[in-house]
Amino acid sequence: MFCSTCGNQVNDNAVVCPKCGCAVSGRQMDNGNAQVPNHMVGAILSTIFCCLIGGIVSIVYASQVNTKLAQGDIAGAQEASRKANGWITANVVIGIVLVVINIIVTAASM
Ligand SMILES: [Zn+2]
Question: How far is CA 68 from CA 2, 59, 65, 89, in A?
């Protein structure tokens, strides 16, 4: 079969394409067709609008979801997904707190 990402011909038993490292789609279906949300969009948005450091941590976990899924590590992918979601939530809370503090400081200085 062929890699759906780069078109490289790969072994039918391969889980990951040896050329580009992406999960081979045909094999991924065999892994119980697991759907684990990677929260990547939320992670990127929280990085832009809230806190850079916490956002980067959530992006790291979000990217681990797809990596672990490609390796067939469903439990690991779910764990990374849960951590990514937790960091995004914490990041949004921190972002809101910072905005509130900013408003209070601005109001106090007027
Ligand atoms: Zn490939």
Answer: 21, 14, 5, 22
Whether residues 80 and 101 share a domain: the answer is yes
Distance 109 CA to ligand 1 centre (A): 57
Distance 96 CA to ligand 1 centre (A): 41
Instruction: Please list the pLDDT of the chain residue by residue as tens digits (110 residues).
Output: 888 788 888 888 788 888 888 887 654 444 455 678 999 999 998 888 777 888 999 999 999 999 999 999 999 999 999 999 999 999 989 888 988 999 999 999 87
Residues 88, 68, single domain; the answer is: yes
CB-based contact 36:78 (threshold 8 Å)? yes
